Amino acid sequence: MHPAFSVIFLTTFIGVGQGLFLALFTLQSYSALELLPVQDSREFFAAGSFLALLFLVAGLGASVFHLGKPSFVITRAWRAASQWRTSWLSREIVFIPAVIALVFLYGLLHYLGWEANLFDVDIAGQLTLVIGTVTTLFVFALFVSTAMIYAAIKFLQEWASPLTVLNYTLLGIASGFTLATAFAAWEAPILVNFFGGWAILFTLAALGTRTASLIRNARIKHKSTLQTAIGVRHSHIEQKAMGMMGGSFNTREYFHGKTAAFLKSVKWIFLVLVFAIPLVLLAIGIGTDSLGLLAGAFVSQYLGLLFERWYFFAQANHPQNLYYQTI
Amino acid sequence: MTQLALVIDLNVCVGCHACVTSCKQWNTSGPAGPMFDDNPFSKDPTGTFFNRVQTYEVGEFPTTETVHFPKSCLHCEDAPCVPVCPTGASHKRAEDGIVLVDYDKCIGCKYCSWACPYGARELDEYQKVMKKCTLCVDRIYDEVLPESERKPACVLACPTSARLFGDVHNPDSEVSVAIREQGGYQLMPEWGTKPANHYLPRRKTRKTIHEDELVRSDNPLKKEDIRHETSKEVTLDDWLM
């Protein structure tokens, strides 16, 4: 497939935003159980939520460029929420604003410091814990919706796998926790070990599932062939003309237009940037509480995710390409 | 339930592209507005078409065969492009099974084109909405036209009548009979899309002649040969002729 940068930025930005929210809420849950020191509501949670919001809104902004025309945002985009019964894309479009609103509410309640003893127990921040729990459910629903957009197309066999959902979820969470580690180094260094440990674990988990999908896709056997495409039973069929000479949507949209060597180098670039460099920087950064190293880990991982997403799209081989092999 | 569809006879198609040009002419002049064309008369011409004719060579020299292969939307009965549409612009009509795009609802996200294994959809680069074959829905129900012309433009244009049009759910329709009796098949059956359009395969007319049909086993030549004394025995041919 031809990778669209609007979608690459959309999926990576919201992944970071969702992961960062989950990191903040994990911390709050640990604090509520008195496993970690309680952080300042305003300086830590409100600021962290604001940071997560920035990424989520940036993702939503990137998605606008995926529309045919920017004016469709005003005239037509509202319809895109209407087919949530059948379309994972529509579900994603429902969940993105919902997650943005919930993270905003979560941050706002922390900022205002509102409290309510909802359950008649001696735990601080019950209101935000309830909102946070709901938000967590929506965040996971958004991860699943985003990934299922791709995993649900059964004839794009590189995507049609549960690994796609695991990769989107784990890579989003890993990048969010890495950002949380850098944020902690700046705001509350005592938490660097906590976030950093989880960031390393999630990065390793994502490395496992992403490698599994790379191995799966390297061995993939495509069901459609030229024989099934035109329905002629012969072992030797060759296309002589595709019906046009100057190219069309079919020749532009479904192929990345780069060489196999380029594709292969992108794979190694993302493996190094998403996994190798951040793991090393996180391991050193945790020991030294170095904001520079931990911020570097996040920047490397985010840049790597752009390569990872590009590769994810480029690697998928659409069966319609069988019809467009020669001019 | 009606399911309108095309049946394309690969045995007859000569690859003249008349269906391509008549399709473009009718649909670019229709109420949905023109289909875009960039550089139509210069280098790298490109544009939106609903229908393409491709050419394949089957086999290796000297036993090759050229197959001209017209390709347009197959109006699948279980169309994968319809449920994925987030806006409901892409839909399948209940009354006649035609898969259509509402150009006023489409946001141009291209997801439906990803979800079509046949590459039947093309984005209009000017209107920025997804376009596809409509089976000339603005023509087949037009009562201003004489009844014989209420067919898709490609069907009317085909000089060899390689394109049949009708209801594939009616077992007695011309298209159903053609599919049933002439080995009609669907493209990429492995994805379960159940295309409504069918293709009729290349067919050869062959007659098998056995050796004994050329040389009479009871040698009647000998019987009729007046240079020899003829037998009084009855031969097989006396019964047959």
What do these coordinates show?
- The complex is a heterodimer of chains A (327) and B (241).
- In chain A, 69% of the residues lie in helices and 2% in strands.
- Chain A is mainly α and 327 residues long.
- Chain A has a single domain (5-220, 240-322), classed as Formate dehydrogenase/DMSO reductase fold (Up-down Bundle).
- Helices cover 19% and strands 18% of the residues of chain B.
- Chain B is α+β, with helices and mostly antiparallel strands.
- Chain B has eight helices and eleven strands.
- Chain B has a single domain (4-200), classed as Alpha-Beta Plaits.
- At the A-B interface, helix 4, helix 8, strand 1 and helix 9 of A face strand 3, strand 4, strand 5, helix 2 and strand 8 of B.
CA(first)-CA(last) distance of chain A: 19 Å
Q: From the 3D coordinates, which CATH architecture of chain B would you assign?
A: 2-Layer Sandwich
Biggest β-sheet of chain A: count, sense, barrel?
Answer: none
Stretches of chain B where pLDDT is under 50 for at least 5 consecutive residues are none
Q: State the end-to-end distance of chain B.
A: 54 Å
Largest binding interface between chains: A-B, 57 and 62 residues
Describe the SSE topology.
The complex is a heterodimer of chains A (327) and B (241).
Chain A: H1 5-32, H2 41-64, H3 72-75, H4 88-112, H5 126-151, H6 162-187, H7 192-218, H8 226-230, E1 237-241, H9 249-253, H10 260-288, H11 291-315
Helix pairs in contact in A: 1-2, 1-5, 1-6, 1-11, 2-4, 4-5, 5-6, 6-7, 6-11, 7-10, 10-11
Chain B: E1 4-9, H1 18-28, E2 37-38, E3 46-47, E4 51-58, E5 65-72, E6 90-92, E7 99-101, H2 111-114, E8 122-123, E9 130-131, H3 137-140, H4 153-157, E10 163-167, H5 174-181, E11 198-200, H6 211-214, H7 220-224, H8 236-240
